[in-house]
# Entry
Amino acid sequence: MNRRELLAAGFAAGLGALCVGIYAGTQRAKPIDSTALFALSLPNEAGKLQSLGQWRGKVLVVNFWATWCAPCREEMPEFIRAQSRYGPQGLQFVGIAVDDADKVERFAKELGLNYPALIGGYGAVELSKTLGNRLAALPFTIVLDRQGSIFLTQLGPIKPNQLQSIIDKLM
Amino acid sequence: MDCQPTSTGSLPKPPQPPDGRRVPVVLMLAALATGAVAQPLPLAPDKAFRFDARALSPQSIEARFSIVDGYYLYRDRIHFSVEPVSVPATVSALPPGKTKDDPFFGKVETYRGQVIVNIALKGTVPGQKVIVVAESQGCADVGICYPVQMQRVTVSLPAANVAPTRPDATPRKLWFE
# Structure
């Protein structure tokens, strides 16, 4: 293969990479303001209000999920492993449950959840729509870098290799 | 940037220039390198789980979910009701679904394809309009779930000895629309 074809392959690979996970980061019609996200306060399982602003400066992974969403539950063990491994270096997962507190508490205990599970209730879906979740489906994840800028929004599960790629880029 | 999705599991067919240059190989290598098989965009829930209702007689309605391939509904999250609430309505039992084991909820039943129930009404008069309300919750095989959806269809009950009317809902789309 000559140099011209190599360059064309590289360009096509970059274009293809953008097409992968086609509904990742392409949903929003206008830029999402992370200020609104950091201003958000929601109760945790114990009922204590938690502001997302307390995690500014971290690589923050905000994950909208629910116990009634099997794909959501299936990706969480990988989040737990990543939180354990990279938490000391500044990675922070925060789950926002579109769910009842008692179901969240039961599931969190069963799973050994090691990151905050905030209770958004069923209204949290509307909240996620303002953050780019046009289909209002789950799981929906927003990743912010240490500067507080939105790096990625994604509808659908985040596979382990994608999660590692995100961590490698931002940590 | 908008990327055109390709069908899942297959590589895009490369273009064939008339002079047979090696551009097709380049595109195939790029596709292999990235695994660039884009996922189709998920449907909005009212498109994935289309709900319809039609009168079978002045006292009977057929309610139907038409579920697009690649999507499924949970049996225990489907509920029907009729408005106005003053109209007594009896919904037939939901048919059995396909059972699967959910690690958190235990045995659950799901539906694919079509789900049909009959709703028997009492005390209605010919020409009366009722609203059938369907509550449902489902997911897509690509790995997303939708919250509970409410869909409503207005049904005009026919006069006695008149053929069942078409539903008053949005007209059924033709396949090419």
